[in-house]
């Protein structure tokens, strides 16, 4: 997808860095063996902390090249003011995967909405635990890491990283990363401004490499005047190349009191041709530049050649890709050049930004396009670009970038522009601020009349999706269903999401892609809502369309989440088909690294449920545990309900009726908190009654039934459970009475798995009433229904071996299935009580998991508290709960238990 | 992308006058990075003087000084007149 171009670019950059190492940096390297040795022999963490232009990046690159570490060093350049932990960690993973050790250990992860940085670090620690060889992680421009959360995550990585991982941070100023602890432990190597200063000998080598022979007092003068500052020396070398009188240059420079950078920049610019000077000044407004863009900005030609020459001369720019087509300026020079542009060509900058915005928009780089449009103060263009590209940005995990872009508009533009307000509403929703989302929604609706006819379709769909999500987050299913109803007509009409021609100049291809993305998003949201509202046929249809469209436009995340829900909604039709869909979803999750995403949780829960119905509880257990891990209890109540429901089925299948009862009771309680009927609520109610019957608690089962409303008692599932109770009370007549409407099909539409139970119970009741022929017919019907899915559980839950054996001797189309059931009934033993680690009694909460991650670090509670910015007593409460849930009595036990359950990365060779 | 993050002289209720010393003489280009402040030579150094609306603006100026590779010598808040 072209709209997802940013990560591709980042990847390309990283690949390029490696390519560069292999090729050797384009400009000659000054040998700095003393610093290289310090880097090679460094402690766990190295900080290279010095002002801009001190030669940090050049030093690190030359060291990696000289020490032959290209395949052992992951290079991560932090983007300008990086506030998105997800993007930062994706870049880290990507860079690590480029190394030889990392390519074998670090699993691939594809960007998706809402990936959690903490979980990404935990995943990385898990992957790196077996690391046996030295691996370097270099983070350049670490001071740009603007997200406090990402910094704390990085700190956690430092604390728990395996022995062989070495971290190098290059930064303009010291960053807060709890490095004092490392310093105390002797695990910190520091290289600072004074260490980086060039000695006279090093400066001489630098000049020589630039073709300038300089010695004696002129050399000393220059080193003194620049104080060995790398950028100053490089600029001096540029001015001196071909200079008629180097000694005079040195003397004049030395005599001037202007700042080094400014003096030398002026000298260098003076010595450039008019063409080059124009290119330098006019492209300085760009974060990165290529030849085509340079020509556009200068109105000239030959830009690419000029950029390559500049790089070879070690002047201002460095290429960021292997083909040397993209370049970026050294930050320091870019700043100076922009000032110079403003001084010499006042008023030009806005027009240049405008040109750049159009170019980036037309080449599939929406984020840069929007930033330039904002810099040009063209709020209308910026707003239209953002509205067109929101779906793609959202789906490729760029919520944080969208948030930052929105903040770049004046507040009145956000309120006055309906399209922008719609994006702001979606953004607030993604940030979890429901009230703010509603406010923007109101503004967008008020202003939507003013949106031009050609663009109003996408805005209406976007607003519909936001309203739908809002209703769901409020747990208001009727409102959600109503929104879904409205969205349906829009989503089913492909043209509704297409902006008209010329919406964004030059950006048509992208905009059309954004339309398909928006439509896919709408279809999947719609299907999910319909699913929860128990409107399965519509859910089926929309999910199927959504999944197919997602596949066609190459949006695996939507395909994956659509499939997971599609799987669950297949249950009434076919367990086998449901299991197949869930396998497809799980396969996508594994390929893209989304195994901890909530949608994966549905797929796991479903697979556990299917295996339980097939009478294979032990195979189901690991899937149930994975579901419990992926689906956090803080999620929507509907989600938590699903977890408890599938856990209950599993316990039922292995005959642990007390555990099953508590799971179904929890599911029933959650069901009471939902504003509207939920697919699984009648089922949970019935299964509570059912578990009580199996426990022999007929009194309590009777009370549970009496506690239900009249209409609830009419649900097919509840009728079936009632029949089971009546049979347990030796009242087969009442049992057939309860089953009547289910058997004749007049009760509410129920799932096949339940229908099997109904016929199985009917058979038992008819048999008890002395009507073996009717019993045989009912049993054959139950087997007919069970056969396609291999659903054995109903026959195990209602064991009637005598009846089954008799049936097996008569004419049945299901001899093999019957034999399997009888085998299980005969060989059935109570499940072993402790096969492997027991899952936590209750799923861990998000905050508990956060505290859990610090347990292997040996930080005391107050320090964990300060890491997480909460009070010590909060941490202690979480610790108490963690120990209780994990059945641990000490920190070490808790860590061991969490590791055994896969909640924490396995132990690395700890220092 | 731009270096327009400078706040020109604020004179709101919270605004304070500052004196910021950097090393070396600033030419016209460098001075244009600090449009709200007056640059004066003092010996081999330059002092930037002016009112800044709040701490955030002060930090903005300091970040600009860092970004341009200037050496910061001293920052002082001046007594109100």
Can you tell me about this structure?
The complex is a heterodimer of chains A (911) and B (81). With 911 residues, chain A is mainly alpha-helical. In chain A, the strands form two sheets. In chain A, strands 2-3-4-1-5 form a five-stranded parallel β-sheet, with helices on both faces. A three-stranded antiparallel β-sheet of chain A has the order 6-8-7. In chain A, helix 7 links the parallel strand 3 (135-140) and strand 4 (165-171). With 81 residues, chain B is α+β, with helices and mostly antiparallel strands. Chain B is 21% helix and 33% strand. Chain B contains two helices and four strands. Chain B has helices spanning 28-31, 55-67, and strands spanning 16-23, 38-42, 45-52, 72-77. A four-stranded antiparallel β-sheet of chain B has the order 2-3-1-4, covered by helices on one side. The longest helix of chain B is centred in the C-terminal third of the chain and has 13 residues, at 55-67. The relative contact order of chain B is 0.32. Chains A and B meet through helix 14, helix 18 and helix 20 of A and helix 1 of B.
List key phrases describing it:
heterodimer, A: 911 residues, mainly alpha, five-stranded parallel sheet, three-stranded antiparallel sheet, 49 helices, 66% helix, 4% strand, disordered N terminus, B: 81 residues, 2 helices
Shape of chain B: globular
> Strand pairing plus helix content of chain B: what structural class?
alpha+beta
Order of helices and strands of chain B: EHEEHE
Give the DSSP E fraction of chain B (strand runs of 2 or more residues): 25-35%
- Derived from helix and strand composition plus strand pairing, the structural class of chain A reads mainly alpha
